[in-house]
Amino acid sequence: MKVTLKSNLAWVGVMLFGFIIIDALEFAGLINTFIENMLVTIGINVILAVGLNLIIGFAGQFSLGHAGFMAIGAYATGIMTQTMSTPLGFYISMVVGMVIAVIAAVIVGVPTLRLRGDYLAIATMGAAEIIRIVINNLKITNGAAGLFNIPALASWVTVYVLMCLTTIVTVNFIHSRGGRAVMAVREDELAAGAMGINTTRWKLAAFVFGAATAAIGGSLHAAYIQTIAPGDFNIMASIAILIIVVLGGVGSITGTFVAAVVLGALDTILQNFGTVRMIIYSLALILIMIFKPAGLLGTWEFSFRRWLTKGAVTHD
Amino acid sequence: MQTFGQQLVNGLSLGSIYALLALGYTMVYGIIKLINFAHGDIYMLGAFWGYYSLRAFHFNFLMALCSAMVVCAVLGVVIEYFAYRPLRHSPRITALITAIGVSFLLENGMSALVGANARSFPQALPVVTYHWLGIRVSNIQLLILITACLLMALLELIIKRTKMGKAMRAVSVDPEAAQLVGINLNHTISFTFALGSAMAGAAGVLIGLYYNSIDPLMGMTPGIKAFVAAVIGGIGSVPGASLGGFIIGILETGVQAVGLSAYKDAVVYFVLIVILLVMPAGIFGHNRREKV
Amino acid sequence: MTSRLLDAQELVKSFGGLTAVANVSVHFDRNELVGLIGPNGAGKTTLFNLLTGETPLTSGSISLYTDQGVQTLNGKKPAQIAQAGISRTFQNIRLFKDLSVLDNVKIAMTNHYQEGFLTSVFRLPKFYQTEAAMAQAAHELLKIFDLTAVADQPARNLPYGTQRRLEIVRALATKPSLLFLDEPAAGMNPEETADLTQLIRQIQRDFHITVVLIEHDMSLVMNVVERLYVLEHGGLLASGTPDEIQRDPAVIKAYLGGA
Ligand SMILES: Nc1ncnc2c1ncn2[C@@H]1O[C@H](COP(=O)(O)OP(=O)(O)OP(=O)(O)O)[C@@H](O)[C@H]1O
Ligand SMILES: [Mg+2]
After folding, report:
1. Count of the separate structural domains present in chain A
2. Helix, strand, coil proportions of chain B in percent (round to 5)?
3. Which of A62, B13, B56, C237 could form a disulfide with A121 if both were Cys (CB 3.0 to 4.6 A apart)?
């Protein structure tokens, strides 16, 4: 209990520290819009990728449709805040987006989560494309042109706080009864069933959880970037989130953070390189995968608890 | 009836392109369980090779087609050697991300090299349109259909009759056992990539002729659709990939014909999901149950 | 005074042309230790799979007698059957390999300790209470099987025999009234087998449960089980007390005739 308290306090400390650093830099005028943009993108990517890592890395379900749920959140905010242009309106739109994403995830997940591996990936990719195409053809979403002049209701602070919150909630879920059940399904679905785990239900739980956090990411994206279009949520967008997960290490939340930061920074640095930017990016991706096939961190996880009890527990 | 026939003809032409592409996906997946994301870009490179060989080298159509197949086969083998072979024993998701990286590399490399703009494909053959029972069929459509069918027949022969083809089938069933009976895994996998990429190269030249327009990103969407076709047909199954390709081609043109062209991709994905729910391993796929 | 726990009538399972289980009827009473023996390929594992819902029945019926009355298990999913109080181990060990020994056990307790989503993601006091109670219960089980020292190790690091014991602990953690053990002593030497068999006997008594034990070698189970079923070629060859089985002409013929 003591260790738990200490490690929880340490995490709170880390989050406050991060906040103060950014705030101080912002105050000192060292963060221009360009850098702030990068930081916010990293934050939103962390939210998206942590949720996808729960689905892929912990529940073992290969979903390739994360951008579809992100789109739902983004459009909920984009549409609703046009008439409710207040912070409260923004949070209401976020909750509405989450609810719709959860409903969509249930509709998609109940039939498709029976599929395995790559079949599930291709089915979820198809489902996300269907969501995008519907958005592309609706009037309320303004079709292919998308929405612009969305009220700027999210600042970097909003993104930072929500990034911390979703990560805390996700990690706490992983280290609880639900997380264990979900990992049991990943490890051996048949044995999990024989131990009384309702495998369908827990797979769906992870999928729905991930969809809800993706909707949060989408809401923040809409309210910060202020412009959204269906093309922002295509297959390539889902793949971009997948790349963060795999690059960091499937099954490592720490890795997801590291990969989001590395890719965000890489992207920013490469802005100056013009046409060769994407060539360097893709070469980097290929090389990292070849030399670090398990991702940057594998399944390694940073833990204050382990730190605090070092010596009592043997190596890891 | 007339429009139905017309759409069928259009659907079959488009479908044969998807089928040629789907073959590459299905063979590679069958043998190393990799969704070769870069496959659509090989098709793009095939189209560009066709473009330059027709314009700069003044090849005729047949020479352009055959040389594109050879060039793409070599490219496929090279990509496998450098990007996928080192990852053969890594998690499959790693190889998938690498394939995505290769895809980005080819798309952006090509954009940097030749520019991102679309360009019009040279008319290698004068277009002749035949009218038959009120249905318009162009010689290009016939050419596509016939070339695709010939290539598929050839492929079937190679897989069923040659030693390499037998090795491919053996490896896709059980790589370890295949090695034990003396099959060279590396050669077999290279051969599979060569075959699949050659088909994609041919598809690239044919689509250039058909649509008259090519660009470095042209492989993205057809690539994904062709993969969907392979999954619908039962991934790993060669006849399945052909069938899947035709199903998607016909579906797309059909949906367009009834005035829902905005939803054509959505319909394709919907059909994909429905087929997977009824047949979790596709039409010709085997659904293996785990033994307890 | 015995009371019926499970009744399986005329079970049939065919795989294509092969009939792996042919018209087998078995029953298990509360608080007994039953052996299931038979040569390779006799259909023992398949019978377990039928009784736990892993493999769908071709025909037959299975009824479970619970405090709430009789319940049919036909067509139920493995998870539902597990929740009804039937647990098992696997012949080819199926642990959650990358997870710790403790987590393997806790996972089996999932349905007995409700945490609630909000309680766990916001770490409310009830979460810590439940986790502590779970950990305690898990450690008690691990202690019985001498696994306390390895509680934090990933299951894949354990030696083979230890993995088998962990599988039994995991099955026990679901609080079953009926426990199927598929060759728990496979790969162990006679001494270890004897120890394990004694341990199984002991937990069967201490936990007041019914245990059904598959074993190849009939001599190993003879002196611990109360009753035996003998399977051969998918059919039931004989059943009865160890004494009866040893005197059964059909069994003698099958086991000694061929040797
Ligand atoms: N899923 C399956 N598909 C096809 N045949 C099967 C399947 N499961 C079992 N069989 C066959 O059923 C027969 C009985 O197998 P089972 O595993 O039940 O035997 P067993 O008595 O447990 O043998 P062992 O002592 O070797 O474990 C065998 O011939 C086996 O090949
Ligand atoms: Mg067996």
Report:
1. 1
2. 75, 5, 20
3. A62
